[in-house]
Predict the structure of Glycoside hydrolase 123-like N-terminal domain-containing protein.
Amino acid sequence: MLRKQIKYLMVYSLLTLPCVMQAQDDVTNAFDDLKRQGTVNEQDSEMRRVASSDAVKKLIQENPEAGYFCFTEDREHDIRMTDAIPVRWVERSADSRTKFQGDCLPGEFYTWQVGVFAPYETVSDLSVTFSDWKNEKGNKIPAAAFRCFNLGGTDTNGKSFKKTVNVPKGNVQALWIGSDVPVTADGVYKGKVTIKAADAKPVEITCELTVQGSPIANHGDNEGWRKTRLRWLDSSIGNADEPTAPYIPVQLQKQTISWLGGTMELSKEGLPQSLSTRYDRSNQLNDQSNNPVLAGEMRFVIETENGEEVLKGGSLRITGQNKASVNWTATRKSRHFEVQCSGTFGFDGLVDYRIQVKSLGDVKVKDIRLEVPYTAYAAKYMMGLGHKGGLRPDSLISWQWNVEKHQDKIWMGNINAGLNFCFKDENYVRPLVNIYYGLGKLNLPASWGNANKGGIDIQPDKDGTVLMTAYSGERSMQKGDVLHYNFNMLVTPVKPLNLPELAEKRFYHSNSDVSADYIPAALKAGANMINVHHKKDIYPFINYPYYDEAVPDLKRFISDAHSKDLDVRLYYTTRELTVKIPELWALRSLGSEVIHDGPGKDARTLIHRNGPHEWLNKNLTTHFIPAWYNAFKEGKYAGDMDISVITTPDSRWNNYYLEGLDWMIKNLGLDGVYIDDSALDHQTLQRARRVMDADGKRRLIDIHSWNHMNQWAGYANSLHLYLELLPYVDRTWIGEGFPANNTLDFWLVEMSGIPFGLMSETLDARNVFRGMVYGMLPRLPWSGNPVPFWHIWDDFGMKNAVMRGYWDERCPVKTDNANIPATVYINGDKALVVLANWTDLPQTAKITLDEQLLGFKPSSYLLPEIRNTQWEGKLSSLNQCEIMGRGGMIILLEK
């Protein structure tokens, strides 16, 4: 045994001690940096003080039977270091290391830690088991109440999962443990926790938890320092088999599925053989409307050198149905292949397809592809595959997979009928967005991508129909090989346009760090909703609006706003997360599950050209991606700084996000959220919608995006990234970096939201006439001043109007100049006509007015005064107009 200890000691000294000494220097510097920021407390100091090399040598000579050391810590002493151990650990006796004592209140979710130190060799496959904890009266906290967050939990779909935890040689792994303490608990509860690694003896932790005092509310979640909110990671809140508003239950008759927006008939192979929507050209539901999207049956084709495989035995089988979805499967076989097609149709029009191709022998494949025949009507516009949103080119489009570009989606459609596809396989991982795409790119699907041999062709036919072919190219398959040709298919529009809500719900969205003027300014302007961005004196740190010190200020602000009939919405999303969160080190202990892996201090991004902020370099060092950072120059947090990291999409952080949303609704009175370039997925936002609608009050979600059509973001379409979220979004604000001189069709498809069933606001495209063609106004005061238009809208009664855009054959005003489109808003016996010049030069146009479509004969043509936009005036007729370059005209017609 002595010889073995000496051997371990020599190896450890040679390989580990230099790292420990460097870690000591780094931690000392980081500690000084934190002191300057005023964020260090006594517990930080203790956990950052690195044990000396002599003390570590003495410790590891003990060589415990398990082959590793366990050290208990309470929730206030976060285990931060992974490559060194703190002084307080080497100062403990062998017995005290494996004893834990804590105290909490009845009803609290209590959290604490065990640090596993592996000085001799890698420790593999850690497990944690619990006994019942009993007090002197025999009352117990049952073993089932305990969990170790590092070893698994509940994913975003509400399913349990397990994780394997290994501790590399020379490293420390924190295990965060938590349990619900009964609200009736009282006294000292004693029990055991057993830590075990593969092929090693277990380490038994003896535990005592003193529970006393008055029961605490919300499990202790009202105070972040308690770290009770870690339980939010395993929440299933919002998961249900019920539609959300405005959707209705999915219906199934034989092989035809009906939902709010249309119908889809399945073939015996499980693919759509017909699909149509029931929206009119104003994107209102109309039982008389029938807009075929498909010109024929979708086909999944396998082709070998002998031609197309004849797949037989197709028989559709419904495998599940409830109000929210319909599930089915169909299996076909040929001599060489077995193909299983499984699908799920959701109440919001999102269809999830999973096609599995299994080779029954060794075979050379010429191609495996999906053929989607679009009607001419439903292929007028397109977006994706490197093409900006707008009119579909008349010529052949050929595209191939390339993960350097964030392109895996294609939408084709018309105003009221379209399909969006997203192609993936079983190993799909949601890419990072914005300037971080290069640090979290697409996984090339082994099926569709096929080592970049795969791609998509879009071929117009002579009859006007358009065939989209997603192909994968040549390959060889061995007997038993399985490929997964998965894809999502979203039917658009996702819901009816809501012009009344756009007319009535008016944002005030300031960029000032100081909130004192928000409420007075909003009231003065006539806004009724306030969006609160982060980096504000009432909400200082990004995506963590429940920061203990700021919560009282934010709660007072919301209460004050409510007393004046103003709603309050917060910037709240997943993607970037402040390092100010009290759970930072607990999340760090989960590896890359929540904090996205990355180059760490070697990372370089568009906003980190010289590397991450020093705080990150000194504290996190490795395995992170630096994100937003900014210093407070005024207000309560002047002199402080917000620093953040990128989070991992589709992780348990989504569960935490949703519980945080629920907590803010119930404890702060939150009225909605503002989402900015998010990592949220369809399922999570569906759950968010249920959380927000749970008490019967409709809370608004608006979504914003930066211009992703550039090298940093992978040449992606900004709106395309979030199409799957739109069923649960109320308003879009797309266009940071989109100028006003974009084409009409680009405005329509990628900025207005109209083909997808949403209304929007203008951002950088500051041309109010062009915006009004699509019902878009600036957002006050961020992107302009909509107040004069609000007055016009109120006088006119926009909330009761119907919109007839230039794309609608029912629009009563038409021009003979394609550069001057006309949109008309009709409210009974009056109408607002909007004309906009889409060029930089003066343009003239002849105007035709269809009084039958208008619904009345106008007796006057007035130019209402719009401050800083249009002089008051009167027209003698509406036969011809001349409009200056980039200008426009708004005309009030009255009976």
In short: Residues 17-37 form the longest helix (21 residues). DSSP finds 17 helices and 53 strands in the chain.
